[in-house]
Write a structure and sequence with these properties.
With 126 residues, the protein is of the alpha+beta class. Helices cover 22% and strands 47% of the residues. The chain has two helices and six strands; from the N terminus they run H-E-E-H-E-E-E-E. It has a six-stranded mixed beta sheet with strand order 2-1-6-5-4-3, with helices on one face. It starts with 5 loop residues before the first helix and ends in a 5-residue tail after the last strand.
């Protein structure tokens, strides 16, 4: 099997970097956003680097660990990369929960940044 396409390499590297930062020091996530970036977190919308970092760094838990189950990456017609991530997360002493993340990555000033992101917990009403 040959080498992965460049968009898969970039997407996978970004995902690995993102979750390493998220799990260790969420305040450092500002470097991956720009002022035009948007986040939808469980239906709440945030726009701009400062608003996104504030939301992520003030989430109500001390510890978090993500386990990635699958990730898919696609190139877009405008030279961006769309990434879909599913997995499980554990915060503090809470139960393990499933999640989905969608990232839109754009090359901005020779660095890949996240311009759009969606997050949802995989909760089911039984």
């Amino acid at each position: 099997m040959g080498e992965k396409p460049i968009w898969e390499q970039i997407g996978s590297s970004f995902v690995q970097h993102y979750y390493q930062l998220f799990d260790t020091d969420r305040t450092q996530l500002g470097a991956i956003y720009i002022d035009a970036s948007c986040l939808t977190w469980e239906g709440q919308q945030f726009q701009g680097k400062a608003a996104i970092v504030e939301k992520l760094s003030t989430l109500p838990f001390l510890k978090i660990a993500h386990s990635i189950t699958a990730q898919d990456h696609q190139p877009t017609p405008d030279s961006c990369i769309m990434s879909m991530v599913v997995g499980q997360l554990k915060t503090d002493d809470d139960q393990v929960l499933g999640f989905q993340y969608m990232f839109l990555l754009k090359n901005y000033r020779n660095a890949w940044v996240c311009t759009n992101k969606f997050f949802r917990l995989a909760l089911h009403n039984l």
